[in-house]
Amino acid sequence: MGVSAYRERTIELTVDGLDGPHTVTHHRIDHDHSNVEAVWRSMGGGAWPADEQWDRLRAANTLDEAAPPRTVEGGTVTLTSDLPMPGVSLIELTP
After folding, report:
1. What's the CA gap between 81 and 22, in Å, rounded?
2. pLDDT (tens digit, 9 = 90+) per residue, 20-56?
3. Where are the domains of the chain?
4. Can you tell me the distance from the alpha carbon of 90 to that of 87, in angstroms, rounded to the nearest whole number?
5. For position 8, what pLDDT does the model report?
6. DSSP secondary structure code for residue 35 in this structure
7. Who's near 37: CB < 8 A, 6+ residues apart?
8. Which CA distances in Å does 13 have to 80, 91, 92?
9. What's the whole-model pTM score?
10. Which of 53, 52, 27, 51 is nearest to 42 (CA)?
């Protein structure tokens, strides 16, 4: 099933009271990001991974960034992103 078969929604997050610049890091879990099961299916799936498949599965077992980190100024910040369904975003703001 291709990504086009998944619905997307637009999310908007507003954060008030940021003191100074912050780095925004956006991680995602969805069909194309942080999805070990999709990697497993792309290798043919099956009952259990063969010994030679484990390294690729371990390498895919990460929390992927949906976008490169960026810097925002303090005060009020509004972040907008598309989010596939099903999907989860983790947005970190680090001073």
Report:
1. 18
2. 999 999 999 998 889 998 999 999 988 899 888 999 9
3. 3-36+64-94
4. 10
5. 85
6. -
7. none
8. 6, 9, 12
9. 0.74
10. 53
